[in-house]
Amino acid sequence: MLREHPYIQRARITESITERGVTQRLIVETDINLSQERNSADDKKLARLKSYLTNLAMNDFGDFSEIEIRPYGDQDDIESECAA
């Protein structure tokens, strides 16, 4: 379902254990321009993606409690997660 969305290039769920319990975060990578300098078309795409992901969370599609949208192919984020 996630892989079929046109704005989602890659998705995964990460878990972190805190004193409050286990937190599961859905991390979505997209090729939409996420910088402050994006145009109105990118704003519309990002709004549609956020709406789609929010609906998934509200309809209990997965057990994630947080959503993070990242630029696709951001190697720094991938390497920092692998090192943790």
In short:
The protein is α+β, with helices and mostly antiparallel strands. It contains 2 helices and 3 strands.
The averaged pLDDT comes out at: 84
* Main β-sheet, spatial strand arrangement: 1-2-3
Straight-line N-to-C gap = 28 Å
Ranges where pLDDT stays below 50 over 5 or more residues in a row are 78-84
- CA-based shape: globular
Query: Treating each run of at least 4 consecutive H or I residues as one helix, how many helices?
Result: 2
Rg is: 14 Å
Tell me the fraction of residues in β-strands, as a range: 25-35%
Q: Assembly type of the shown chains?
A: single chain
- Secondary-structure element series: EEHEH
The tally of beta strands, per DSSP, is 3
Characterize the biggest β-sheet.
Answer: 3 strands, mixed
* Helical fraction: 25-40%
Protein structure class: alpha+beta
Structure report:
The protein has 84 residues and is of the alpha+beta class. Helix content is 33%, strand content 30%. It contains two helices and three strands, in the order ββαβα. It has helices spanning 40-58, 75-83; strands at residues 10-18, 21-30, 66-71. A three-stranded mixed β-sheet has the order 1-2-3, with no helix packed on it. Strand 2, helix 1 and strand 3 (66-71) form a beta-alpha-beta unit. It is globular, with a radius of gyration of 14 Å. The termini are far apart. The model is unreliable at 78-84 (pLDDT under 50).
